[in-house]
Amino acid sequence: IKMEQQQQKGRGKKKPQDGQQQQQRQQGGGGDHPGAGGGQGGGKKGQQQQQGQGQGQGKGKYKQKQQQQQQPQAQPPSEPRVESGGSQQYGQFLQQLQQQQVAQPAPAQAEPPKQPQGQQQKGQGGGGGGGKYKQKQQQKQQEQQQLEKQLAQQKPQQPPASGDHSRSSSTPEGTLSPTHGAIKRVDEDLAGMKIDKGSGKSALRQVLIRPGAHGKRGRVTKLEVNYIPLLLEKMVSTAYHYDVDIQPTASRKWQRAAFKRFEIEALAGQPIAFDGNKNAYTAKKLNLDHYKKEVVAREDNRDRKFTVTMKEAAVVDLQCLKSYMQAGNSNANLVKPMRAIQCLDVVLRTAYELNPRFVKFRKSIYVVPSRPEDIGANHELWYGLFQSALLGSKPFLNIDVSHKAFPRGGPVLDVVAALNRSSVPPTLTEWLARDVHDYLKGMEVVYTGPDGVGKTFKYNSLKGPASSQRFRLEDGTEMTVAAYLQKKGYRLRFPDLPVMHVGSTIRNIMVPMEMCAIAPGQALIKKHPDCCTQMIIRKSATDTITRKRKIMDIFNQIDYNNCKTIKDFGFGVGNSFEIVDGRIIAPPNVVYRNNFSVTPQRGQWRADNAAFIQINNQPLRWRILNLDSRTRPDAIQQFGQNIFQVSKKHGIQLEPFSMQQIYYEPRDMRNAIRQLDSIFDDLKRQKMDFVIVVISAIGDHYSKVKQRAELETGLLTQCVKGDTLFKKAGDMSTINNIWLKINAKTNGTNHVLQPGSKPPLIRRRVMYVGADVTHPSPEQTNIPSVVGVAASYDLEGFRYNCCYRLQNAKDEMIRDLENIIKKQLLQFKACNGALPDLIMYYRDGVSEGQFAEILTIELNAIQSAIASTSPGAKVAVTFIVVQKRHHARFFPIKGTETEGKNSNLPPGTVVDKHITAPNQFQFFLISHQAVQGVAKPTKYCVLYDDINCDPDELQAVTYALCHMFARCNRSVSYPAPTYYAHLAAFRGRVYIKDRRLDMNNLAGEYRNMQIKPEIIDGHPMFFV
């Protein structure tokens, strides 16, 4: 809604004289609205142009005033400004920088005529929730035709020779034509989209074997890594693997108790390593091929009968561990001895398996704290130790500190009071009952009956109040829970609170809340509350010295070398971190307009006085839409003025802004969607280049904005949280960061690599591709996995476009990659006149056990896409897996170069031997400055390489790509294409939020959620 009070002030003003009016326009306008850097300006003519552009009304609930703002024709500045850079490629651009000329900005284009309101069709109010958006068919066709006409005017460029990336341009240097950066529409084969693995099978490809792939460049340094050497000199040559089956199926806690009983009764206490599930290992062969015994296990004051069956499965060759490590200097095609490593891992864990001082969760153990740290939401922080056996030039035990939120043990009523933020209420409201259920879901509770005996049950759900919830006794009579307990001599204090259904879901075991307590030490597979996550991040963000001390404190509590089972296998564990060699490689230089070159220092660079290398040459039309009722209009004014001010530094022409506001409660989502649709319709009719949307931190504004803007309307948006405006509306670094996004979204280029900093490997046509798959969390059901793929389409590696896909949950392989890559190749060719010489494929999220499968499926898809796009084309592929979910950390030693208050190794630190696979092409790289805590290096594994990359070259390229992320003037922790793949997958998750999907027809669901051509083709980097 226009700010009526300020408009009323302006309506009575006289039209300024010509000289005064021109001066006001140069300052940002001088009409009704004071705006950012001035008002809308223009007088009566501007008001006449806006008649009939009122927004739709959402069935009477959202009444929009008819807009009276002006849309003045942009005037050129009174003084010429220096612009350079153009849409030409950078090789030719640098030569022209030496002969810079003063260029006048392109004249403002005449605004296309507006359609009178009376001629517009009805029916633009959007549906509620996830319903279909009904758009005017005529307007849709006109917009599509206009976009296609603009894109058709872009002539494909001639392919430059290798190393010569020059282009011609008719636009002023440093500016872009209105459609420059847009890409031609390439229709996808949605009918043939793949979402599952299908029936065909291919022979698994061999991961690249390349011993000695070590770099030499950079300053040599020494550092410690949290790898403890394993001592295998006295190791037995073979181990014996047994399959274990325990019936009935129970939790791992009961399985361990049952197997411990079986070990004592059937195996006479012979040392045996059990993984708590299906596998057991011994150093000496047992005198049985098949054994079955019934045992009685005791846990939580209860006895249960189990039948344990154990039979011989395999003989494990442990000597192959040494053979694999000795292959570092050979081309031997050795398969990693996974069975032997698994045996080694299971045996080492027996040092703490049944120790009551530790709670095991996945690959970590947590120490029961003597003084727990409260982190809010009735949770406490526990510290633990992660461990995993690894093979490098020698065997290692990778250990690292772990942090996890555990629900606080104690009465269930304490949880009710905490969630109620007061005392225990006599009854539960609907929302409080939902919060209590969400908190208790998956937990075990201890019920203490009138006899004082405690029994542990798993919580299922809440039922009716104890005073009215009835159940059937063994004699067939029915009575309420409260009456039954009173008969037993126990009178409830809160008879109107709901009872809890516990134990087996097929049994009606109902117990009152006030007689139950939460069992302590429960490690749950569920998302932590947000406040707990924030506290965990804060508590875990320590310097390198503190982190190392925490690791060693817990490590020393585990007496590995005195464990009977470990000694029986002949294994031993060292007592200190390994010292390894590393190198610190130089960062690339980045360049802005006017050949302004910057050398990053400590992973960041200042560009306060630098202008974007390319901008849009037309005056950009924009609005600020405020959806946050807590953000005041004066804060919007200040924010808008700062946005306007920073745009001048970059030479970007902005029309003076105006603000609209819409407030709604999250409960009234259906009406809010109608209002949002109406406003977006109107902004689209006004042909806004972008809209800044202020959203609330409370509720789900972001996904609704992106769904309506990108899937339904075709409107480019930039969201900003209201809290950010409240805290940083005057912080110019925040405004600069917002402009980094907006310029990229409006097809500009922020910066590029200096030609001299480019490694020779990428002085050719290269298409950088990042790929990732995000999966639903364990508690999320009926949600698919989302694929995100981003690919560069310019020769500088700055501009990217993206694709997303839906596929079956938990499926890590990208099933429709062939169609995705084919589209990216066609768009690259349309923009550059030829296919790329090289595809550098950075694949994230893949574990080592998936390497062969991912290489087989996805490399085959890439090569098939190349062949189908241009038969006979020679496009090389380098396939690199990017791993971040590991526990390797680097620590300085005395005299080592460090950076920052946390004493981290500096950005550019590379380790590519000793702790990497001995006969493979792998390296660790710290490419970023850790803002808090210990820097986590990213691990890179080259699975396939057509061009035999030099290790120094590949490490330099990877480090350079970490400096090409559009959203900040920092090097990031992994390459830009991988980061963009994350953002693409996240955008896909935003699109499906709160939608009911048919999991049996994901291809159809995807086809119903297509991004508008105005966005996906007109503004390819909309997703940054």
Could you name the key traits of this structure?
single chain; 1024 residues; alpha+beta; Alpha-D-Glucose-1,6-Bisphosphate, Chain A, domain 4; paz domain; eleven-stranded mixed sheet; seven-stranded antiparallel sheet; 42 strands; globular
Could you explain the architecture of this structure?
With 1024 residues, this protein is an alpha+beta fold. Among the domains are: 238-317; 336-404 and 528-573, Alpha-D-Glucose-1,6-Bisphosphate, Chain A, domain 4; 410-519, Beta Complex (paz domain). The protein has 25 helices and 42 strands. An 11-stranded mixed sheet has the order 36-35-34-37-38-42-41-40-25-4-39, sandwiched between helices. Strands 5, 11, 12, 13, 14, 15 and 24 form a 7-stranded antiparallel sheet that branches. Strand 19 and strand 20 (478-480) form a beta hairpin. Helix 15 crosses helix 19. It is globular. The two termini are 28 Å apart. 43% of the residues are buried. GO terms for molecular function: RNA binding; RNA endonuclease activity. This is Putative germ-line stem cell division protein hiwi/piwi. Residues 89-122, 136-156 have a biased composition (Low complexity).
